[in-house]
Amino acid sequence: MTSLSIRGVTKRFTATPVLAGVDLEVPAKSITAILGPSGCGKTTLLRIIAGFTDPDTGTVLFGDRPVFGAGASVPAQQRRVGYVPQEGALFPHLDVAANVTFGLPRAERRDSGRVAELLSLVGLHEDLRRRFPHELSGGQQQRVALARALAPRPAVVLLDEPFSSLDAGLREGTGRAVTQALRTAGATAVLVTHDQGEALSLSDQVAVMRQGRLVQVAAPADVYGAPVDVGVATFVGGAVLLPARVDGDLAFCALGALPVSPGDAHGDAQILVRPEQLHLHSDSQSGGVPTRVVDVSYYGHDAAVRVDLLPSGPQVVARIIGAEVPALGSVVWVTTRGSAAVYDAATTPTVLVSEGPELS
Ligand code: ADP
Ligand code: MG
Questions:
Q1: pLDDT tens digits for range 156-171
Q2: Which residues are paired to 94 by β-bridges?
Q3: How far, in Å, CA of 129 to CA of 164, rounded?
Q4: Could you give the CA distance from residue 360 to residue 353 in angstroms, rounded to a whole number?
Q5: Which residues line ligand 1 (CB under 6 A)?
Q6: Each residue of 195-211: pLDDT tens digit?
Q7: At what angle do helices 96-103 and 138-150 cross, to 10 degrees?
Q8: Average pLDDT per block of 10 residues along the chain, 360 residues long
Q9: What is the maximum alpha-carbon separation in the chain?
């Protein structure tokens, strides 16, 4: 397996650029998720890596070897890329074994042990080999598609929203099985998704795409904990955004004085905390800011509780475990754990509160 480098890649189909200068390094044997809203250019980038589309400018390298740019233009079939689309990758008239065999190099096609090995790699039972695609669940179909993509031992595996057609129950298990198989195979993989949970939980590196640019490329915990801007912050999770005044390593805001990283900007700013950093308690002696509970969304494992800070707002949302939900209308105190992220002050001071990721 090889690393993948994308440098200065641009692409336009009409006057508006679809990719406006993309740089990305995917280390060998690692999984990078490209996360972004629909229409931001994810599939176009994947097709450029695969060689199905040529970029207007830029270079694509597999390891040290340019496959596009720097004088090279290696056709798709010679790039050794495995591609798993959203759905419908399998030949409907071929059974599982024949679909997987189709991906094998000619010399290995008679080796039924290799098909068994690939099915086992993606966590599918040998008994499924005579089934046809319509006799499989959506999740099983996607695993067969991955087995076929891995069959020729590709240099790079590209997956374009491979779980988005699956219902919620299947999505998580299939995602885990697929990434487990990629890791066992030692694959270098790029997984495109518009689902922040999928990106954060399945990858080693998340590349957040917005309007044809990668605005942040970092480990999942850094994208979530230290998003580069408010747009990324609200795209990847719930958010409480408040006007603040930053002085030294403290931000003074409606939630009190919150620690910030040294080196953050001083003066007027906006700060971000995640709803799960807010802790609600009913003991007036334990400190915190008094609030009134105005709304509760109960999810079982946890709950989103909207509270108005007393006496006159703003409203914030706390994400707390489901067993500790306070009564509507009751007065509770809010304390904040951990530190806040700091952003430039908005031109008009805004308060933004969201329970979960905002698709923009
Ligand atoms: P995503 O996969 O993030 O949803 P795409 O890469 O499919 O986004 O598309 C990005 C933009 O490029 C969209 O506005 C889409 O309409 C446009 N686009 C993609 N492919 C073509 C094409 N072959 N011709 C014209 N426009 C295209
Ligand atoms: Mg797409």
A1: 999 999 988 888 888 8
A2: none
A3: 24
A4: 15
A5: 13, 18, 36, 38-44
A6: 999 999 999 999 999 99
A7: 30
A8: 94 96 98 96 97 97 96 94 88 96 89 90 92 94 93 94 86 90 94 95 97 97 94 93 94 96 82 96 91 94 94 92 91 96 77 68
A9: 76
Distance CA 159, CA 151 (A): 15
- The residue type found at 161 is E
**Atom 12 in ligand 1: residue holding the nearest Cα:** 18
Task: Show the tokens assigned to 40.
Answer: 């931001």
Q: How many residues does this entry show for the chain? A: 360
Instruction: Encode pLDDT of 93-128 as tens digits.
Output: 999 999 999 999 888 888 878 999 999 999 899 999
- Check residue 82 and report its DSSP letter: E
d(CA 269, CA 339): 15
CA-based nearest residue to 199, from 184, 216, 211: 216
Ligand number nearest CA of 11 is: 1
All residues at 6 or more sequence positions from 335 whose CB lies less than 8 Å from its CB, including other chains? 256, 278, 279, 281, 286, 287, 288, 289
pLDDT at 41: 97
Q: Which domains does the chain have, with CATH numbers?
A: 4-225 (3.40.50.300), 241-352 (2.40.50.140)
Which residue reads 């044997």 in tokens?
A: 29
Neighbours of ion ligand 2 (CB under 5 A): 42-43
CA of 93 relative to ligand 2 center, distance in Å: 26
Q: What is the pLDDT of residues 78-92, one digit of tens each?
A: 999 999 988 878 999
